[in-house]
Specification:
The protein has 94 residues and is of the alpha+beta class. The chain has helices at residues 2-6, 36-48, 72-87; strands spanning 13-16, 25-28, 64-67. The protein has a 3-stranded mixed sheet, with no helix packed on it. The longest helix has 16 residues, at 72-87. The protein is elongated and about 50 Å long. The two termini are 17 Å apart.
Amino acid sequence: EFLEAALAGKVQKVKMTDLLAESPAALVQSAYGMSPTMQKYMKAQNVASGGSDAGMMGSFNQAVLEVNPAHPIVQDLERMIGSGAEESEEPKNF
């Protein structure tokens, strides 16, 4: 929940997964999303045809952040967020 709120607008969603073995997290394309190469191609086509590239691709295809809840870094982050939530609602710089 914390990561979804902190990364709102930057990723489509954040989900817990057990597919990651050694990494704390991975950024993947959604099931029906475009590859980064196709995104570059579409952006180039839009600019070449005289369109503006500002903001076109930002909301068009966002990635999914998969988080490994068993990784020590993720567990430490969860512990820090849990202890910080009781003190105040202001953002913390860990």
